[in-house]
Structure to design on (408 residues):
């Protein structure tokens, strides 16, 4: 495998792509930190950015962190309603009660999105508001679920632990955007590596030598190439994610690792905290990178032409990003689209997805299904790619070798 790894890494486009991914992830981490803003003082117009903004919000949350009970929500609501007008009440909710004001908005906003704190008498039914808000989201989003599917959705909703924990969760919004960028870049470069994995021998005329080897020997060579590709893409993915996370979390930590995702995404049906989503996202991203690399390798083994293999692979891989916006498509199609490997990059959308997949009981949300689908797809593509490359390269080399022997 070391020999195949050296062959991969010494190619100029591989070196360039590897360096570019690391630089882009580091740069995106710095940009994401700088993009975070926090109002410097209540009622003021000046904003802090970057680390100063994180520290400012951390101080604000320190005053209101902890369990979000109906009693606490009512105290906050009545204090906010003591303001003279709605704009002052909104400002007070944002600045003095960060997180809580946003949750009240999400829980009680009407279909047209309008919400006024002054029209709300109490928050006694705060946690009961999740079910009607999920129904409202389904209606306004043009989604279509059967009665059984709705029952399964609400069964998952009942698994969510309450009361919620109010922690500084806002930085996760920026991180999910950064994560999306990093995964997409890794997927694209993994396909670039895979698209020339097997055709490399033909491009340097090494396939002629393969004609003098046994079929099993050629098969072992192809397997070593696949292992080298898996190691290269894994190392790149892990290092680029370590760079991104080190820069971002090094600036904003500590944040809401243990708080429920519903503090930002009120209608999510995932009974998970932000740490769980982060770990599942990393695992899914790794499996998706393997699937992308081996899909391109499969096309390369089949076509023996790197450019068409990359073009076809990229089209198939990234088309679901477009299709997922067509909500008029049948549920079966939308569910399939959302377990394509590229969907691992859209962590925010995965957290918010209401689609459930066949499994004993009430089905499984996509965040659990994605890594399994990607891993199975990668394993299947590896087997097919090795078999195709073994057969194609051995036959081509054997044919060329026979012609040369006949000429002699």
């Amino acid at each position: 495998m070391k020999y195949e790894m050296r062959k991969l890494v010494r190619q100029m486009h591989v070196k360039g792509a590897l360096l570019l991914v690391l630089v882009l992830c580091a740069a995106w981490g710095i940009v994401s930190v700088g993009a975070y803003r926090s109002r410097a003082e209540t009622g003021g117009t000046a904003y802090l950015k970057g680390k100063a903004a994180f520290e400012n919000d951390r101080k604000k949350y320190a005053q209101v962190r902890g369990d979000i009970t109906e009693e606490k929500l009512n105290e906050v609501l009545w204090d906010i309603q003591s303001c003279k007008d709605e704009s002052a009440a909104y400002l007070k909710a944002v600045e003095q009660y960060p997180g809580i004001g946003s949750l009240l908005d999400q829980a009680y906003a009407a279909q047209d999105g309008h919400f006024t704190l002054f029209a709300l008498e109490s928050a006694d039914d705060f946690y009961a508001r999740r079910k009607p808000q999920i129904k409202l989201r389904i209606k306004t989003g043009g989604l279509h679920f059967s009665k059984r599917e709705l029952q399964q959705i609400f069964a998952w909703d009942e698994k969510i632990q309450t009361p919620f924990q109010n922690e500084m969760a806002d930085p996760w919004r920026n991180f999910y955007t950064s994560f999306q960028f990093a995964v997409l870049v890794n997927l694209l470069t993994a396909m670039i590596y895979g698209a020339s994995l097997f055709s490399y021998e033909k491009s340097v005329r090494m396939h002629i030598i393969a004609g003098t080897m046994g079929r099993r020997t050629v098969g072992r060579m192809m397997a070593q190439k696949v292992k080298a590709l898996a190691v290269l893409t894994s190392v790149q993915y892990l290092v680029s994610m370590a760079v991104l996370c080190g820069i971002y979390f090094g600036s904003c930590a500590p944040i809401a690792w243990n708080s429920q995702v519903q503090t930002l995404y009120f209608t999510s049906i995932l009974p998970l905290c932000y740490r769980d989503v982060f770990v599942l996202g990393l695992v899914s991203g790794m499996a998706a990178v393997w699937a992308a690399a081996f899909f391109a390798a499969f096309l390369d083994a089949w076509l023996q032409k790197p450019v068409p293999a990359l073009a076809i692979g990229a089209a198939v891989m990234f088309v679901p990003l477009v299709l997922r916006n067509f909500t008029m498509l049948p549920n079966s199609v939308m569910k399939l689209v959302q377990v394509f490997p590229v969907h691992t990059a859209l962590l925010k959308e995965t957290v918010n997805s209401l689609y459930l997949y066949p499994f004993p009981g009430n089905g499984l949300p996509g965040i659990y299904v994605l890594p399994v689908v990607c891993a199975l797809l990668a394993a299947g593509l590896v087997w097919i790619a090795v078999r195709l490359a073994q057969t194609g390269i051995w036959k081509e080399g054997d044919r060329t070798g026979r012609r040369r022997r006949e000429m002699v």
Remarks:
- Confidence is low (pLDDT under 50) at residues 404-408.
- The longest strand covers residues 37-39.
- The radius of gyration is 26 Å.
- Strands lie at 37-39, 47-49, 66-68, 164-166, 356-357, 364-365.
